[in-house]
Amino acid sequence: MEKIIALNAWIKDYAVKNKLIYLDYYSAMLDNNKVLKRELTYDGLHPYDAGYEVMGGLWRRKAIAGALHHPFSSSAHGKSRAKRSQ
User: Fold this and answer.
1) Residues 6+ apart with CB under 8 A from 41
2) What is the arithmetic mean of pLDDT over 16-25?
3) What per-residue confidence (pLDDT) applies to 5?
4) What is the pLDDT at residue 85?
5) How crowded is the C-beta side of 78, counted as CA atoms within 13 Å?
6) What are φ and ψ of residue 5, in 5° steps?
7) Residues 6+ apart with CB under 8 A from 54
8) With 90 as the cut, is the pLDDT of residue 1 above it?
9) Would you call 34 helix, strand, or coil by DSSP?
10) What is the pLDDT, as a whole number, of residue 72?
11) CA 64 to chain centre
12) What are φ and ψ of residue 12, in 5° steps?
């Protein structure tokens, strides 16, 4: 488990340094004992469909938040199109 935690920390640090999106699936799927919830995995590593549902929910929330805060919002595109058409 320490190797997984260390690897996840390295990936998160890399993502931050390179301005990439990082999704922390691991933490979202842990129980109170810091192991993957039994209902989400069949072997402690690979997820059931329920685990993929957790991952998908995180991805959707992060993607929507990123789209809402992206510098190329629809209003920015509208302004650039208006300038080109003049």
Assistant:
1) 29, 47, 48, 51
2) 88
3) 86
4) 47
5) 3
6) -60, -45
7) 25, 28, 29, 40, 47
8) no
9) coil
10) 56
11) 11
12) -60, -45
How far is the C-alpha of 36 from the C-alpha of 60, rounded, in Å? Answer: 21
Residue spans of the domains in the chain: they are 2-71
Q: How confident is the model at residue 80 (pLDDT cuts 50, 70, 90)?
A: very low
What is the end-to-end Cα distance of the chain in Å, rounded? Answer: 60
Q: How high is the mean pLDDT of the chain? A: 81
Spatial distance between the Cα atoms of 55 and 83, rounded to a whole number of angstroms? 41
Predicted TM-score (pTM) above 0.85: no
> Computed over its alpha carbons, how large is the radius of gyration of the chain?
19
Q: Select from 66, 60, 65, 5 the least CA-distant residue to 36.
A: 5
Instruction: Please list, in sequence order, all residues whose beta carbon lies within 8 angstroms of the beta carbon of residue 4, skipping any fewer than 6 positions away.
Output: 26
Residues 54 and 1: their CA atoms lie apart, in Å, by: 20
Contact (CB, 8 A) for 41 and 48: yes
| Residue found under tokens 């929910």 | 57
